[in-house]
Amino acid sequence: MSSQIESEPGQGALTVRINRPEKRNALTQAMYLALAEAFDKAETDPEIRVIRLTGSGGSFTAGNDLVDFLAADALRAEGPTLTFIRTLARSTKLLVAEVDGPAMGIGTTLLLHCDLVYATERSTLGMPFVNLGVIPEFGSTLLLPRRVGPAIAARLVYFGESLGAAEAARLGVVTEVLPDAEALRARVDDRVAALLAQPPQALAAARALLHDGGTPEVLARIDVESSIFTERLVSDEARSAMTARLPGRHGTSAAEG
Prior knowledge:
GO terms for molecular function: delta(3)-delta(2)-enoyl-CoA isomerase activity; enoyl-CoA hydratase activity. Its EC number is 4.2.1.17. Helix content is 45%, strand content 16%. It contains eleven helices and nine strands. The two termini are 25 Å apart. The model has no long low-confidence stretch (mean pLDDT 93).
């Protein structure tokens, strides 16, 4: 497992931490493989009932590391990114996101698959896919309009607008907003403990009914998005837009968001 993905088992819960703070936790292909491995192991462990996903250093994730992303065939059918996307989407464990700081690109789309999302006031969400010449992924073209309505989904996707934590909560993407990282940690500790105190079979059955991330419809949309994304990724338009954001170009960083 990549050292930039930390997996910490606990009593009934697994904490998965993205740990690349010097790059705002921007994700590489190696990190996607490690994330998929962590989620896959949790899925086969009957003792794990809750997965807690978080970042380090004041970031959730700034999205894809564009240097790494451009060098890879990033959404090929059996590649690391899509392997992680499918693994998380099919997870039957309760997924709790602990978001502090930027959650951009895939950092936002994966939240649509989480059962509970807790965020600090300073957190920001965004989907700058069209800005980069590609399209949203992770089934988000289906899940986002269901969550926030088609008009708001269009605004967020077409313009790549960022959402503050308070607005994200109002729209139903974030469960609760906390004032700072310390309060966030304490609240997630409390909520995870409360989940683990619930009757496990009843909770699992309720989750299966409420959660639609792993349904055939969503998994089919993930495949459609992946095909279009891959076509877009090799286009001159996308390469030009992404290259313009590489380090040294207008002071930008090598992350999706």
